[in-house]
Amino acid sequence: MCEPLNILTLAAAMHFYPDEAVQLYRTAGSATAVMDNRSNLRDILPACPQKIVETLADVSEARHKAEAEMEYASRNGVKTLCLGDDDYPQRLAGCADAPLVLFYKGTAALNRSRVINMVGTRRCTAYGQDCVHSFVKRLAGLCPGVLIVSGLAYGIDICAHREALAAGLDTVAVLAHGLDYLYPPRHRDTATQMLTQGGLLTEHFTHTNADKLNFLRRNRIVAGIADATVVVESAGHGGALVTARIAGSYSRDVFAFPGRAGDECSEGCNNLIRDNKASLITSADDFVKAMGWTADAEMEHARRQGIERTLFPELTDNEQTAAAILEKENDQQINTLAARTGIPVGELTAVMFSLEMKGLVRLMAGGMYHLIRN
Fold it and tell me: What is this structure's pTM?
C-alpha cells in the first residue's frame, strides 16, 4: 500500500488511541513501516502496550474505511493532509499530539506566515462582538495576509469568522466531526462562503458525529495551528480556556480582552490575565506590537501612503526564479521551493539567504519563506 493509504489505515485502526498512533508513526518513521512491522511492533516500540498490538493485528476493516475515505475525498474536492506532508500545517506538526491526518476543503494556505485563532464563549455579549469587530477590522489593515482560525461554534467563534470574511481575510474553521455534514447547521451559509475565502478542516473521517470528546480534542488543533490565541469573553470554565491552556503548553502566545470585574462572560479572560497566563490587549495595535509584527504594519502604512518599492532589484536568474514562485504562491518551505524551481536544495539555500539580505524574503516560523510584497 502507498503511504497515504497506510497512514489513513493507521489512523482508522487507532481511532481510540490517537496519541499512541502518533508515537508509533514518529518512532517508526512512516505509517508504512508500522504496517510492515505489525507482527513485531515491540521491535519498534519496546514499551508498546498489548492493547495496541492487538488493535493492529488485523487492520482489514480499517483499510476498507481508509479506502472509502480516500474515495470520498477524491469525489468531493477534499485534500488529505498527512503528517509529514509539505501542505500539512507545520506549526501543528511540531506538537507531540498532532493528528496523523487532516481533511481539508478550502482555498487558504494553512502555512502562511501569520496565523491566529480567536476563541470565546458561545454566549457572547454585545461587548464581545464589538471587540471582535474592531480587532479584526483593524488587524486586516495592519496585517492583511493574516489567517484567522476558529471553531464555527455559536458566539465568538462565528463572529470571528464572519468579521474576517467581511474584512477580506481568509478564515478557517476546525470542525469536531467529518466533512460530510455541518454542525451547527445554522452556520452553513457562512461555512459555504469560507470554502472560497478560507476553508473547513477536521481530523475526523466521514460519518463521525460531533461528540463532546471531539470538541475537546478539536481545541488542540485550534491552538497548535496558530502563532497566537486571542480569547474574547469566556466564563470561568469553558472550551476557550482549554484552548488557551493548550496554546500555553505549546509555547504559543496567549492574549485576552479584559472585562468588568464580576462580569460572568469575562471571568475567564480576567483570570487568565490575573494569573499571567495571557497578555492583556484592548486592540489589534496592542496585539501586533506584542507579536513583533510591526514591520508588516509599517509596510502596509507605507504602501497606503504611496511609497513605491522595487520588488525585484538586481537579482540573479535563480533569485528571480525563486522570487517569482513566491510571488505566485507565498510562504513555502525550502523542499517545496526546490521542487518547483528545479534548483538543488543546497544551492537554493544560498539563494534564499541572498534574498533575505536584499530585504525581499523573510524566514518565518516552521521554516517558511515569506516574500515581502509591495
Answer: 0.79
